[in-house]
Amino acid sequence: MAAEVEVTVVTMRDIFQDEAGRKSRFSDEYRDQSALIILDKQDMATLGAKDGQSLQVKNDVGSVVVAAKTSEDNPHQGLAFMYNSPWSNQLVSDAVSDSSIPGFKSIKATISAAEENVTQISEIQARIKG
Amino acid sequence: MAICTGCSLLCEDIEAAEKDGALSHVKNLCRKGHGHFQAAYTERTVPMIDGEQVDLDRAIAKAAEILKSAKSPLLYGWSNSTLEAQAVGIKLAEKLGATIDDTSSFCQGILMERILSGKLPTCTLDDVRNYADTSIFWGSDPSSSHPRHLSRFSYYPRGDKRQKSYEEERTCIAVDVRKSATANLCPNYYFQVAPGGDAQFMEAILAVLEGKIPKVGDKKKMIGLGSILKKTEWGVIFAGLGMVYSLQEKMDLFERLVAKLNEITTFKVVPMVGHYNMRGFNELLLEKTGFINRVSFKDGKPAHGPEHSVVASAKTCDAALVIGSDPFSALPFGTARALAKVPLIAIDPRRSLTTDGAKVVIPSALSGMEAGGTGVRMDGVKIKFEPIIKSDLPTDEQILTRIMEAI
After folding, report:
1. Residues B160-176: pLDDT tens digits?
2. Residues B113 and B242 in one domain
3. How far apart are CA B18 and CA B381, in angstroms?
4. By residue range, what is the domain housing residue B81?
5. Do B160 and B254 fall into the same domain?
6. Given CB atoms, is A121 within the 8 Å cutoff of chain B?
7. What is the DSSP string of B118-143?
8. Cβ distance of A18 and B34 shorter than 8 Å
9. Chain B nearest C-alpha distance from A119 (Å)
10. Does A80 touch chain B (CB under 8 A)?
11. What is the per-residue pLDDT across A84-120, written as a single tens digit (0 to 9) for each?
12. Which of A15, A26, A104 sits opposite B147 (nearest CB)?
């Protein structure tokens, strides 16, 4: 069975991704800056993943294929980072706490290697449309 | 000088020159602002009904027809519209008996409520520049989100009382789950917290301030933090989404910490608002209804509650008007999916996932570039701006006025 890693995904902002999104949400540049998951070195090793490789991130809400990126931060096994984007929001539940704020920064997900390419924005649009 | 409406710093020193109706050159923009200004020339919307291009009058008439026939319409967005447009939007919600909510509903709202009600002491960014000797970036990363924050206000500038600035007089502290770009500026004062661990970290600071041993964190480092805070003459906490999302129902603890700090010295809180006029909407709605967001006019009188949040209302509304916002990109999949099922009107200068999924698209002039008006900076300072590019496109305010007249 292919390796899987359980993580908590925390979303964050990035100035380069923000700039790309302002110019166009439909550009390759925005996709390349957004459809990423940043993982701890140890989690990358467990998955046998290299930078740029497609990984599936899934949970009860949904699933996306994004590119792997090795974290340069202190060790944070089990904690992953994604830029706030339509890709990360595919995994955010709309079941909310008392304050009615969705868990944008506490997404439980399972990661595994993917054979498909990174999820395209058109696929996300089609899913939303249903 | 032009104003950049790319974020809630509303930078007022943008030099923009126009030639033949277009921008010929612009100076002083940050990278984010550069993307924002470039947006004037990419992915502009045209009036559409069901994916077919129509004239503006038809799109506005169709929008009015949808809203008029809806029983529970939702009016959402607002954080990228001028105060003038927001005022018309609130009147429209009242007239329709609609629910009205903005982006603060799922970001800074629970913090903003405490700032605007006076439960948390606040100040202007100009006060920060002039007086602050300690800036705490808590769950915020201005180097990524508000790129000129540090240079204009919070770290580098030489203020009235801080002429020696960051070299000698200002200490920058970062509290975050990751070593952000801003945390990299203050490696000695970077405090890493576990996701959801902000409340525990606040308890630890309170313990240190009360002379007790903290239960979390490196004890020596925590005691060091306590002494920096005690020695601070004039401090400010820039509270970001990292803190707000982590605390949620425990926001009272933050109030307790700030109150404790103010027993010792001066400490203010500035919310790191993202969109340029989220605070403006919150202030305006508070003035009109007594609530900063999540208001329903269904029974005539304004009612407030989580059931009127965009996340909840998306599932109960039977039509929606989205203005200057892209919920299909920014909100959870289930919320976007719910909004996609109702007749959706999108008023936006630019193409987005939401305009692509809307039944009616109404293009508008870009605030700050093609449309003038007023915005409220993250610290509550009102900033007026004039258009810098000629445009035939209607402003948000004009579009909303026309919709209201047609209802």
Report:
1. 999 988 888 999 999 99
2. yes
3. 28
4. 45-106+276-406
5. yes
6. yes
7. TSS----HHHHHHH-SEEEEES--HH
8. no
9. 14
10. no
11. 999 999 999 998 877 778 989 999 999 999 999 999 9
12. A15
Are the Cβ atoms of B249 and A100 closer than 8 angstroms? no
- Give the number of domains in chain B: 2
Q: What is the pLDDT of residues B25-71, one digit of tens each?
A: 899 999 999 999 998 888 999 999 999 999 999 999 999 999 999 99
How far is it, in rounded angstroms, from Cα B143 to Cα B118? Answer: 28
Q: How many CB pairs under 8 A join A and B?
A: 155
> For the packed helices B109-116 and B278-289, what is the interaxial angle rounded to 10 degrees?
60
The reported pLDDT for the residue numbered A1 is: 64
The structure's pTM equals 0.96
Phi, psi of A11, deg, nearest 5: -90, 155
Query: CA of B403 to nearest chain A CA: how many angstroms apart?
Result: 26
Top-level CATH class of A4-129? mainly beta
Per-residue model confidence (pLDDT) at position A15: 94
Minimum distance, in Å, between the CA of residue A44 and any CA atom of chain B: 18
Same domain flag for B113 and B179: yes
CB contact under 8 A, B31 and A15: yes
Comparing alpha-carbon positions, the chain B residue that sits nearest to A21 is B35
Task: Tell me which residue of A113, A65, A107 sits closest to A84, measured CA to CA.
Answer: A107
- Is B245 in Cβ contact with A74 (below 8 Å)? no
**Which amino acid is it at B103?**
T
CA–CA min distance A101, chain B (Å) = 5
Q: To which residue do tokens 């999924």 refer?
A: B357
Q: What is the least distance, in Å, from the CA of B266 to any CA of chain A? A: 29
pLDDT higher than threshold 90 for residue B347: yes
- Optimal mutation site among B141, B245, B291, interface A, most CBs of chain A within 10 A: B245
Q: Both B285 and B391 in a single domain?
A: yes
Question: Domain ends where: B213, B242, B271?
Answer: B271
Calculate ∠ Cα B139-B350-B361, nearest 5°. Answer: 120
Q: Out of B43, B144, B192, whose CB is closest to A13? A: B144
With a cut of 90, say whether residue B10 has pLDDT above it.
Answer: yes
CA-CA distance, B397 to B407, in Å (whole number)? 16
- What gap in Å lies between CA B118 and CA A126, rounded to an integer? 45
